[in-house]
Amino acid sequence: MGIKVEYSHHEVAPSQHEIDLRYAEALEMADNVMTYRIVVKEVATKYGFYATFMPKPIFGQNGSGMHTHQSLFKDGRNAFYDANDKYYLSDIAKKYIAGILKHAPEITVFCNQWVNSYKRLVPGYEAPVYIAWARRNRSSLVRVPLYKPGKEMATRIELRSPDPACNPYLAFSVMLAAGLEGIENNYELPEPIEKDIYHLSEEEKQELGIESLPGNLIEAIEAAEKSDVVRRALGDHIFNNFITSKKIEWNDYRTRIHPYEIEKYLPIL
Questions:
Q1: Which helix (H) or strand (E) is 74 found in, with range?
Q2: Which domains does the chain have, with CATH numbers?
Q3: How many whole angstroms separate alpha carbon 159 and alpha carbon 65?
Q4: Which residues, other chains included, contact 258 with Cβ-Cβ below 8 Å and sequence gap of 6+?
Q5: Rounded distance, CA 163 to CA 52, Å?
Q6: Average pLDDT rounded to a whole number, residues 131-159
Q7: Which of 32, 41, 107, 108 has the highest local Cβ count within 10 Å?
Q8: Which of 9, 28, 34, 35 is nearest to 20 (CA)?
Q9: What is the pLDDT of residues 146-157, one digit of tens each?
Q10: More confidently predicted of 167 and 203
């Protein structure tokens, strides 16, 4: 299909696979994501299987993420690279990361747009919950892969919260908007958190200023509703209709009785 795959391997959960698509410009990559999802489903069906991009299809197992690697280029050069910085990150890269971190709650509903998305975003299953950045720490929201000499073009950041059930056109748009807002307004990047955040106490997280992503769909909707950054990025038409559709979904979900409730409460109430 003309889509280059860099790596593919089995992941942690049963029947779970990671397929890494080669980088491309944002719009082309969104097209590739859509094509890729259709092809995977078609090929699985051909062999009698069903492929799902549901964020959390199996209780007690790791969910499926869509780790999104990002970098900015100018005049053919990677604008994120700085040979003189201890992290090999330019000021542009640092401000971009700071923008992603500051606006993370506002963009979450576009990166994690379903009720089921928030069953994945819980501590303990490799999915990021805490708003922080690091190089080696995979419990953080943003990871900066370690620089390898001679690989300046590969300097990039990895946003680990999006899931593969999102609309990539909207998700990539709001990610870029958040990062560019950080550049435009000179956001300051906090120090990286290299400790495993899952093992920190609430007091320690508070001391380090570590906040959490929205815990469910309605929290994410409410965070997005207040965001001028997101509204400007998507325009009133898409923004208003998306928020309206998500509220309908949340109300549909919260008013239904689920098997968990019957199993848990019916025998004792």
A1: strand 73-74
A2: 1-51 (no CATH), 63-265 (3.30.590.10)
A3: 10
A4: none
A5: 12
A6: 84
A7: 107
A8: 9
A9: 777 777 888 899
A10: 167
